[in-house]
Amino acid sequence: MVGLVRSTRYVLALASPAPPAPLPRSGFVQVEKPDEARAREFLASGDYFWNAGIFVLRAGTYLDELQRHRPDMAKLVVEAAKAGAQEGTVFRPDPATFSAIDGDSIDYAVMEHTEMAAMVDADMGWSDIGDFAGLEAARDDLEPQSASASDRHERVDANGVRIISDGPRVSILGVDDVMVVVDGDEVLVVSRDRLQDVGKLDGAKNQ
């Protein structure tokens, strides 16, 4: 893959094979985070791949494509670099200018529009732990979902409940299929069928 970058001017997206489930809100190489209906169409066709979010590219090529598709962002990137400062081995762009750059991802800003993209099929057991559903699937191999002798949280008449807390003990009574996350003074309670929608909450926008 690196050799391909060196020998061409392609921007490369490294992707895993087609996902085993539609997983709405997960990114595909061709379309970033389609809705569930469209994700099901992608899965049925067998022609779509997950976007693993791993890119190998030449900086100059990327900046050229950013200028072509998002000139507003490219202009501020250049200005932030020009006004930046070198501190030892670390270069810091101008913070005021850099913070003014639209917080758009490479997927939306460039990859959905560029004609210089290539994809490498990387069957490496990759998983998109980009939401709580993905996190839960990954953690299932490491810890039980139900209460155990080492679990200080309490669940009574509560099935399918996952609790993740960095401090307070959590007690659940008579509620099924929810996830509870406690992070400092922030508390999230969400039903399992809405895990993909957590990003709609105001508290999640800057996380």
Topology:
Elements: H1 2-7, E1 11-15, H2 36-45, E2 54-56, H3 59-69, H4 71-82, E3 85-87, E4 90-92, H5 95-99, H6 106-111, E5 117-121, H7 132-139, E6 154-156, E7 162-165, E8 171-173, E9 178-183, E10 186-191
Parallel strand pairs: 1-5, 6-8, 7-9
Antiparallel strand pairs: 1-2, 3-4, 9-10
Description:
With 207 residues, this protein is of the alpha/beta class. 28% of the residues lie in helices and 20% in strands. It is built from seven helices and ten strands. A three-stranded mixed β-sheet has the order 2-1-5, with no helix packed on it.
Keywords:
207 residues, alpha/beta, 7 helices
Please give the count of helices. Answer: 7
**β content, as a range?**
15-25%
Please summarize the sheet with the most strands: 3 strands, mixed
Give the averaged pLDDT, no decimals: 79
Going by helix content, strand content and strand pairing, the class is alpha/beta
Low-confidence stretches: none
* CA gyration radius, whole angstroms: 21 Å
Order of helices and strands: HEHEHHEEHHEHEEEEE
Task: Please estimate the helix content.
Answer: 25-40%
The number of E-state strands comes to 10
Q: Quaternary arrangement of the chains shown?
A: single chain
> What would you call the shape?
globular
Q: Distance between the terminal alpha carbons, to the nearest Å?
A: 32 Å
Strand order of the largest sheet: 2-1-5
Quick recap of the structure?
The chain is an alpha/beta fold and 207 residues long. The protein has helices spanning 2-7, 36-45, 59-69, 71-82, 95-99, 106-111, 132-139; strands at residues 11-15, 54-56, 85-87, 90-92, 117-121, 154-156, 162-165, 171-173, 178-183, 186-191.
